Amino acid sequence: MLIAIISIYWITGTTDVIKLLNIRIPIEYQYLLWLAFFSSFAVKLPMWPVHTWLPDAHVEAPTAGSVILAAILLKMAGYGFLRFSLGMFPVASDYFTPLIFTLSVIAIIYTSLVALMQDDMKKLIAYSSVAHMGFVTLGIFSLTKQGLEGSIIQMISHGLISASLFLCVGVLYDRYHSRMISSYGGLVNIMPKYALVFMIYTLAALGLPGTSGFVGEFLVLVGTFQKNIIVAVLASLGVILVAAYMLWLYGRVVFGKLINSEIKKMTDLNNTEKYIFASLAFLILFFGIYPEPLLNTINVSINSLIENYQTDLSFHLAKSTN
Known about the structure:
This protein is 79% helix and 0% strand. The protein is mainly alpha-helical. The two termini are 32 Å apart.
């Protein structure tokens, strides 16, 4: 990215983003510059196949580190795609859209299947993050109003849901010092309040209507259907797979027989944990039932982005034709 930024300065004489949006970088430079920015954003997001750092990072990180990484830091790449890739390189973005669609679909399906095989709760949630961010890139490069709105809402929603799920794992780890799914079972008998909030976050992660997870994924799929029906159908398989691994996780941890005698000593949520989980659950349910505040906030920016993108694309295509 640094090399690309230096190159942009050599080509245009400025690194001011607002000026660059009006300068319109020549087509012959756009493709390489787009790939340079893409190589950075793809790792940060992360996209398949450069996603392998994320599960290990989550496993090694403390709970607070996992929450910050999943809830905030991954979204920087989504912002980069919206702000720089679409804004400054419209022709290259249009040209490389099939590449993004292919990598996104592979990420959604492949990492969901990998999540089904995990024994570590943190790794399972980390792989689910890769799958969910695949929906974000699908929505961004669908270049439709619904797709772009869905991608932004999906980023906000995923930030709330993934942070909540990692906090749920952190609660268990603080009490028993194990992230292994096999270490638990039957928690509903001794931690009913924890089981309730964990259920809300699990259902939100699989996109249940009435939660914020549904709004983002639904809009992304609607926008993608307008662009490419086959890609949208394949991406829809991810909705089924995420339900499979999230319900499998919840069922093995919360339900079943309470076999491990040491787990019986674990206590339910304390007051601090209750307030944190309740506030996150409120936001997830509120935006799931009433997403209009988010849609109204981003509506002007989305319309402006689409208008500028189409104008720039038409300008460059007309120039290349002439």
